[in-house]
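Note to self: user wants both folds in one dump. Writing first protein now.
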Amino acid sequence: MSSADDQYELANDAVTSGVPAGDSKDNDYVSRTGQSTIPVQKDEAPVEDPIDPATADSDETLARDDADAIDQSNIVGSRTRGAKPSGGYAEPGDEEGLPSNDGTSSVA
């Protein structure tokens, strides 16, 4: 048994062929001559696609993109850029950098 909501939706919300009803082309926002300085195209205007689908995903294209993106002159040849080892890193002591505690209050 179906509910009243289901019956209402079947009667009033029917969509034909899986496509929502309504106007898919709305050109109300298209610039009119002399109205705006920002040009806006119509929905029907063709869009130029600079990507060639036949070669867009090829290994050659990806390799060329990688070569273009990496600036070989900016890669450092050695790890430390020529600096000599200085004995490594040493952790600071527990009291290092702290004021000395002479037993007096810091509040005047």
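First done. Writing the second protein, which came from a different request thread.
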Amino acid sequence: MDYDAMDGLEDAGPRVTVRQASRDRADFTMEGVDLSFANSLRRTLLAEVPTMAIDLVEVQANTSSLADEFIAHRLGLIPLNSKNVDDVAYTRDCEYCEQYCEHCSVTLDLHARCTGDEIMKVYARDLVVSEPRPNEWVGMPVITDSL
């Protein structure tokens, strides 16, 4: 009896099914791929999304029990709106300045002072974007902690 184990089977290679796609969003499924390949594709896609983050924090006065470095780290975790982030030049490619200017950065100010004995909570909504900035959206905190 002649027996072919592959007889009747379709190609078992990777298969991608796009369920929905738009300019800003894609919904798809992948079949027949290793988990490590799917994860590497996910990481590549995320790396290509333009983002903006707080990376330089200058503390003028800190009388809290938290270290400046701890506060700077927490500020860096706040997601910022990156709509039209292409209007902002990379700092290393800025032709207008050596370090930071309104063409390659966005300045956020935070003024918080506890005047009572109870603990004061400071939220992302307390960050204020200073003018000038490249456009009206870029740099605004995504999470505004609405009451």
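Dump finished. Worth passing along: The two ends are 76 Å apart (CA to CA).
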